[in-house]
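A quick aside before the break. I want you to see a complete sequence-to-structure record at least once, exactly as it would be stored in a machine-readable document. Don't worry about memorizing anything.
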Amino acid sequence: EMGRQLLNTFASTVRAVLTELDNKLQTLTACEPPGWSLLEELTEPRPAEHLRRPELSQPLVTALQICLLAVLVEKWGINSSSVIDHSSREIAAAYAAGMLDRSSVIKAAFLHGKAVELAKDSMEAGMGMLAVGMSADVVCGLLESYGGRAVIACFNSPNSVTVSGRKGDLEALAEEMKAAGCFARLLQVDVAYHSRYMRLGEI
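That is the input. The structure line, written in tokens, reads:
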């Protein structure tokens, strides 16, 4: 229900954007259009396992970002002088920078998620990601004993990185970090984004 409060607070703006995006998704020709709506998925109760599916999570996050931009720009007149983001959020960043329109952005997000969903069957199972409250230098030292099975996937800040790899290794790494008094939490994803495990057939 992560979009419910946004919709309740800025009802006319957000509902109009989500309706527009839902209509754009229904015009997809590269594959079957989704049998669900952004509006319902963002406002109705859903189990975590349901929303972990890339086919859903990618367009839902992108739709939320587009809605937030609509509030900032269209309602409040706040325009950015620069845009920065990473990973799949670069899709919405391209829209914020004026490089893609809403239709292209939501379709790209859906197709990106769909591609990952379809590719998961060919990827090694038991993958995940771990958020870590440590500097990259310290984490790199800890990762040496994992022989490349866990790697830094994202550099979030000077003292925060995300690690991708096999869940068993990530759980062991999390225990090491917690024992040292550092923050470590598994993310609710079943894919090791930004790692070699994203290559089909990689072991």
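Two observations worth writing down. The longest strand covers residues 150-157. The beta strands are 127-132, 150-157, 160-166, 184-186. We'll return to this after the break.
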